[in-house]
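Quick start: what a row looks like.
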Amino acid sequence: MPKQKIYGVHNVKEAVEEIIPYLEDSGRTAHKAIYFDGWDGLAASAVLTAIAEDPPPSLKEKFTKILHIDCSRWKSRRALQRAIADELELPQRVMAAFDREDEEDDFSRVDEGSRPEVPDVTREIYQTIRYLNCLIIFHNGSDSMVDLSNFGFPQFNWFSPCTVLWTFRGRLRLNPEIKEKVDSSHLYIYKPINWYFDEDTAQLILDEATEIVKYIQHNHNITPRIAAKCISYLLWFNKMGGGTTMEYNWGTHAYNYWVCDGIIEGGQFDESWEVSAALHHQIRLEDCLFHTVNFRDDQYTEHWKSVVNTSDIEERTDITVSPTLTSFFLTVKYRSALPQEMFQQSERLRVLKLSGCTAFIHLLSIVAVALDSLD
């Protein structure tokens, strides 16, 4: 496929400025299907949203209609078709066809994820847009490419009046394998990053978090910055502990870690758990293991720590829990006893996970001594 690496682009605004000329192009060789991969997956959805919500005058002049179809949280092909119909504001008689098909599938016990598009609606979509010059901005949360011509759009070839800008990314979808599914007929635009936690990467993580928070109901108790810190928490421990040395079980326990560490707090006890669970539900946690961020030494190290010991643990000094730590993960490959003084200064420790330790009873005795020393 034709690939275009964009240079000198550090944020969403600059990426938008780089992509707009490809959408404006009206030449005979202009690409009608454009894929944007973001910064190794980060912030791609934020760029698409920025173009859809605030298109420049040049795009408004070129396209008679701009459709923003966000299916980053994938449900089914029928749900995608309903999103298209909503964007086109099709009449109620057409929308009723979805309800009829859903009722029939409910009766037949057809799984929601297997429900296909409705042929009558496909024809209605085609009749509505066949003479329109459309820009379709599409967030594809499925595991494969979607041929939008099956939903009523004309083929995206050189003669098509429509152009599609789309991405597989969104909701922290960092799995590098997904981009290999983009076929050769699409212009592939991308921007790799070095994954060091500098100012630019911090902003991209914040942009990703901002997109995620939009879809959390009653999100007044979680800000994009809090969500960004939760994302950084995941990426940080992937780097420090590595998914190959300790099993964090992010898919099960991430929302527990965020609350216990104190990143997410609520006015009432149950409220913080509800907010954390809502964020947990929106993120593609199965993909967060594919990238780690190289944080600088002065960022988060005072509060978070992960250690992997491969030699006699009693000879190591880096496992002491300092007074500022809130989360501590320890993997012991050489099985031996933990030092008695390990938790003597653990006043703020709220998350503790140990792997490979000799005896749980021994651990309890150490914690008991530590707690007794704090009285």
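That is the whole record. Residues 224-240 form the longest helix (17 residues). The longest strand covers residues 65-71.
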